[in-house]
Amino acid sequence: MILIWFILLPLAGGVAAWLTGRRYPLLSRCVALLALILTFGHALSLWVRSTGIAWTGNGDGHRAWLYDVHYEWIPQLGISFHLAIDGLSLLLLLLSAFLGIMSVAASWTEIRDRTGFFHLQLLLVLTGINGVFLAMDLFVFYFFWELMLVPMYFLIDLWGHENRHYAAVKFFIFTQVSGLLMLIAILGLYFMHGAATGLYTFDYMELLRFQMKGSASLWLMLGFFIAFAVKLPVVGVHTWLPDAHTEAPTAGSVILAGLLLKTGAYGLLRFVIPLFPAASRDFAQVAMILAVAGILYGAVMAFGQTDLKRLVAYTSVSHMGFVLLGIYAGNMLSMQGAVMQIICHGVSTGALFIIVGALQERIHTRDMSRMGGLWSTVPRMGAVTLFFALASLGLPGLGNFIAEFLVLLGTYPADKIIAAIASTGFIGAAVYSLWIVQRVFHGAGNRAASERDGRPTDFSFREMAVMGVMMLVLLWLGLYPQAVFDIAKHPVESIRFTYAPGDNR
Amino acid sequence: MTAVPVEHGLILAGALFVLGMLGVLVRRSIIFMLLSVEIMLNAAGVAFVVAGSRWQQPDGQVMFIFILAVAAAEVSVGLALAIRMYHKLKTLDTNAAGRMKG
Amino acid sequence: MIAMNDMLWIMPAAPFAGFLVLALAGSRLPRKWIAAVGAGSVGLSMFAALFAGCSFMSAPPGMHAYVQVLRTWIDVAGFSPKIAFYLDPLSVIMVLVMTVVGFLIHLYSAGFMRDDEGYARFFAYMNLFVGSMLTLVLAEDLLLLYLGWEGVGLCSYLLIGFWYKDEVNGYAARKAFVVTRVGDTAFAIGLFLLYSNLGTLQIQELMYRAGQQWAPGSVLAVAAAALLLGGAVGKSAQLPLQTWLPDAMAGPTPVSALIHAATMVTAGVYLIARTHVLFTLAPAVQAAVAVIGAATLLLAGFSALVQSDLKRVLAYSTISQIGYMFLALGVGAWSAAIFHFMTHAFFKALLFLGAGMVIISLHEEHNMFKMGGLRTQLPLVYRTFVIGALSLSALPLLTAGFYSKDLILWEVWSSKSGGPLLWAAGLAGALLTSLYSFRMVFITFFGEAKTKAGGKPGMSMSVPVVILAVLSVAGGFVEVPVHFFTGFLAPAFPPVQSANKAAGEIILQIIAGIVSVSGIVLAWFLFLRSPHYDKTLSQSGFGSLVHRLWFAGWGFDRLYDVLIIKPFLWAAKVNRDDFIDLIYLGVVWTSAGINRFLTFTQSGKVRWYVTGVAIGAIVILGIVVLL
Q1: pLDDT at residue C271 in the model
Q2: Which chain C residue has its CA at the smallest distance from A423's CA?
Q3: Structural domain total, chain B
Q4: Do B94 and C610 touch (CB under 8 A)?
Q5: B24 touches C at CB < 8 Å
Q6: Which of the other chains make 3 or more beta carbon contacts under 8 angstroms with chain B?
Q7: Which residues are bridge partners to C76 per DSSP?
Q8: B91 near C CB under 8 A
Q9: For A300, which residue in chain C has the nearest alpha carbon?
Q10: Which residue from A299, B52, C44, C337 has the highest number of Cβ atoms inside 10 Å of its Cβ?
C-alpha cells in the first residue's frame, strides 16, 4: 500500500480538483496543491525511513529494494501489478512531487480557463510519471508510459499558446510511435524469455536474470533505446521538444522538461542497461557520440533562437546530452553525475520555464527582440533569472556544476576525446545563458514594449516563494550533494555492475 | 423434360449482370441506377438458381429468396434517398450530388 | 592563543556573508549601512588575514602551512574533494595583498559610487568577488579552487556589465566571461586528466604524486601543464586569450582596479605558482610560459603606447605586467613572479584609482587627449598618480616596481631556462613601460587644460590612494636590503635554477635603471616637449598602419571575429529552424502528398465510384483467373 499512495494521491487529488473546479477554481488549486504536498511528504518520509534501513547492495547485480509490492493481475499472461522502489526511484519521485507543487503554484494565476480540468490533467500526468518510476512489470510500465501522454497532449492542446495544435500532435506522434517500438521490444523480450525458459512473464526482476545473446538483443535494446531517446531527447529525434515546450502552458513545460524527459533517462538506467548489458556496451560508443552531438548542437541551436521559451527548450537538448553521456560512460562517477544532472536540470530548467511563463504573463510576448532593459523595472525577476542562467551554465556552487563535472570526470577515463569535446559545452552554455540575461534584462530597454503594456510588475510573494525554494534546492545540491549520492549509490552501483562488472571505479 | 444446359443459364445471368452494370455506369438518373442495381441483383439470383438446379440442391433457391429480401430492403432505402435527394436538389441527376468529394 | 587552523574560514566567509546581507536586504538598507557592510566585511577578512600573517611569521606552523578541513564536499567512488583551506607562505602573501588592496578599494568605492543607483548591488558583487577570490587562493583542493576561479569570473562579468543599460558594457562583460571560459574549459579538462591519472585533486597530494609517478617531460605531465596553462592564460589575459581585458574597462573604475588589475587577473599566475611542480615536470610547457609572457609583455606594451583612453592604457599595461610575471614563472623564478604580483597590485590599483578620480571629476571623460593640465587642478591625484607611474616604470632605487621588475630581469638572465633573448625582451618591455606610463602622465596632467575639473575627491577616496602610494614605494623594501620576501616564500618554492649566478647583478641593475629613466626622458621629449614628432610619425603611411594595428591590439579581435564568432553566429542563424526537423517535415509532406492524390479520387460522383468498383472487380477476377 505504501507505494500505491504515489499513484492514488495524485489521481484522487486530480479527480477532486476536477469536481471542485467548476464552482470553486481556487479550491481546485488548493486541492491539487494539497495532494502533491502529501505525495511529496510521503516521499520524504520514505527517504527518512530509508536512512535507517541497512541498504545491502551486495555488488552482484541484485538491487536493494526499499519496498516491493506485488499483486496478481492477469496471471494467464504473466502480468502482475508489481511496484518497487529503490534509491533511484525515490529520488525521481521526490523530484516529481516537488516539480508538481512548483508547477501548480506557478500556474496559479496563469490558468483561468477550465481550472478543474487543467488540474485533473496535470495530476494525471504526474500519476503516469510516478507509475513509470515505480513499475517493475514491463506491461505495467508500458501502461503508465502511455498514460503520461494523453493528459500531456490535452495540457498542450487546450491550454497552450498560438501554435498548440501542431505541437500537441507532433508531441503525441513522436512519443506514440517510439512507444510502439518499445511495445514491440517488450513483446519480443517476453516471447524470447518464454521460449528460452518456459516462463512467460513481464516481470522485470525475472527478465533481469535472462541474459540474451546475439543480434536479437541488439534489436530489442534498440527498441527500448529509441523510445527513451525520443523522450530524453537524443539529437536527431529531438524536434518535437522545442515545439512542445514552447507551446505548452508553463506548468506543462515544467513537467515536460523536468519530468517527462527524465522518464527517458530513467528508462535507460532501469531497463536498457540492466536488461541488455552486453548490447549496451557494444552500443556505448554510438550513444556517447550522440550525446556529445546533442550537447553541442543544443547549445548552438539555443543561441540561435529568438523565442525565449524555445531557447530554454533547446538548452534541455544540450543538458540532457550530459545525462546520456554519463549513463553510457558507465562508471560510478559519470552515472552518479547523470543522476545528479537529472535532478538539477529538472529544477533549473523548470525554474527557467516558470520565469518565461511569468514574463509572458506580464509583457505578452516571448520574442526576445521585443524585450530588453527589464532589470530596472523588475529587478527581483532579473536577479532570479541570472541565478538560474548561472545554474544552467554550470557555475560551481550550484548543483548543475557538480553533475556536469562528475559526468565529464567519469567520461574522461572512458573516452578522452569525447570528454574533451563535451567540455566545450561549458563554453556554449555560457554563451546562451548570458545571452538570455543580456537580451531580456540588460540593455537600454524596449520603449515600445513598455509603452504598450505599461510597467510590468515584479515577482509577487507567491512567485518569489516558488523561485526561492528552487534556488535553495540548487544551492543545497551544489554544496551538499552528498545526500543525493548516498541515496542513489546502491541502485547506481548495481546498474554499473551489470553494465561493466570488471571495472571497479 | 429436357433440362436447360447450365451454360445457357449462366450466359443469361452474365448478360443481365453486364446490362445492369452498364446501366449503373451510364444512366445519370438515380431511379434508373436503382433499376439497374435491381437487374444486377436478379442476375446474381438467376446464377444461383441455375447452379442450384445443376447440383440438385435447394441452396440456390434459398439464396434467391434471400436476395429478394435484400433487394426489397435496398429499394426501400434507395427510394427514400431518391426522394430526399429530390427534395434537397430538385433533380434526380447524381452528378449534382457531388458535394461529398474529399 | 586561538588556533589559526580553525580560523581560516573567516577570511572567505566574511565577504560572502556581506554579499548575502546586501543581496537579500540591500535594497532596504540606507547607503551608509550598505557601505559599512560592504567595506566592513572585507575589513574583517583583512584583519583575519593580518592576524594569520602575523602568527605565521611569529610562529611558522609545522609543514609551513595551516590547514583547515571543513568537510567533505562530494564522496563518490573514491572521488572525495574536500572543502578545506590551506594557508602556506604563498597564500599568506596572496591573501594579504587581496584583503588590503580589496579593503582600500572598497573604501574608495564608497565615495566613488556615491551617486549610483545600484549602490547595494555594486557592493554585493564586490563582496562576492572578494569571497570567491579568497576561496581561490585558500583552496586546498583544485575543485574548490575551480569554484573560486569561476566565482571570480562571474563577478568580473557582473561588474563589467554593472551599468547594464548600455549594450556595449553587456557585450564587454559577456566577452570577458566567454573568453575566460575558453581557458576555464581547458583547465577543467586538465582537472579530469589529473584526477584520472593521479587519483586526487588535493593540491599538495597531487603535486607529491605527480613528482613520484611522472617522469620529467612525460606526455601526461606536459598535457596536464599545458591544460592548466590554458586556464591561466584565459584568466590572466595572456596571449592568445588577452582580448577581453581592454574591453573589460567598461566596468566602474574600482572594479578595474580590484579585479582587472590587482587580483583576479593574477589568478593565472597564482595557479601556475601553486602547481609549479607540474610545470617543472614539463619543461616544454614552462618554456612556453616564458615565451607567452615575453610576447605578451611586448605586444601589450606597444598597444599601450598608442591608446587614447586612459583606462585602456592601464589595461594594456596590466596585460604587459602580467606578461612579466609569466616570464618569471617560465624561468622558474616563482618568488620573483609573486613579488611582482604584489608590487603590481599596489601601483596598478593606485593608478586605476587615480584614473578613476580623474574620470569622475571630468564627468566620465576617458579620452586623455581631452584632458591635460590637471596637475594644478587635482594636485593630490597628480602626485599619487606620478608615484604610481614611477613605480610602474621601475624608477631605480626608490620604487617598489624597480625591485620586483629588476629581480625578474636578473633571474631571467641568470636562470638556466632563461637567457639573454628573454632578458632582452623584458628589457625592451621596460623601456616601453616607462614610455607609455609617462606618455599618459604628460598628456593627462601637463600641457594646457582642456577641460575643467569639477569637485575634489572626498576623504574616502583620497585616503586609500595615499596609502597605496606609500605601499607602491615602500612595498619594495620587503625584499631589499634583506631578502625577507623571497626568504618567506622559500618553503613554498624550489630555488631558482641558476646557470651563471656568478656576477653581473649590479651591472644588469644599472642597465635596467638606465633603460627605465631613458624611457621617461624619451616620453618627456616625444609627448611633452615636441609632440609634433609623435604626430608626424603616426600620420606617415607606415606609421599610421602600425598605429592602427597597435591601437586595435594587433588585430586579435578581428581575427577571432572572422575565425570563430562570425561562423558561430552564422551557424546559429542559418539553422534557426533546425534542419533535422526537415526529416520529419519530409515525412509529413509525403503523407500530405499521398493524401492529396487520394482525395482527388474521391470525386463525389456515384458513377465514378461504381466504375472504380467495376474495374477493381475485373482486375481482381482477372488476377484470380489468370494465376
Answers
A1: 92
A2: C185
A3: 1
A4: no
A5: yes
A6: C
A7: C79
A8: no
A9: C572
A10: C337
In chain A, how many domains are there?
A: 1
How far is C-alpha B65 from the chain's CA centre? 14
What is the DSSP track for A210-226? ----SHHHHHHHHHHHH
- B77: in domain: yes
CA C167 to chain centre: 22
Chains touching C by CB (3 or more pairs below 8 Å): A, B
Residues spanned by the domain of B72: 6-90
- Inside any domain, residue B98: no
This prediction has a pTM of 0.88
On whether the CB atoms of residues C242 and C319 are closer than 8 A, the answer is: yes
Its domain, for residue A452, covers 290-505
Q: According to the 3-state scheme, what is the secondary structure of C152-217?
A: HHHHHHHHHCCCCCCHHHHHHHHHHHHHHHHHHHHHHHHHHHHHHHHCCCEHHHHHHHHHHHCCCC
ipTM of the predicted structure? 0.90
Query: Which element (helix H / strand E) includes C85?
Result: strand C82-87
Within 8 A of B95 by CB-CB distance, chain C residues are 605, 607
Report which residue type is found at A402: I
Q: With touching defined as 3+ CB pairs under 8 A, do chains A and B touch?
A: no
Measured between its terminal Cα atoms, the distance across chain A in Å is: 37
Domain of residue B15, CATH code: 1.10.287.3510
At C608, list the grid cell. Answer: 465514378
pLDDT of residue A60: 44
Domain-located, residue A362: yes
User: Is A41 a domain residue?
Assistant: no
Burial class (CB in 10 A: 0-12, 13-18, 19+), A15: middle
Contact state of A405 with C188 under an 8 Å Cβ cutoff:
yes
Separation between Cα atoms, residue C329 and residue B81, nearest integer Å: 100
A86 pLDDT band (50/70/90 cuts)? confident
Question: pLDDT tens digits for A126-182?
Answer: 999 999 999 999 999 999 999 999 999 999 998 988 888 999 999 999 999 999 999
From chain C, pick out residues whose CB is under 8 angstroms from the CB of B98.
603-605
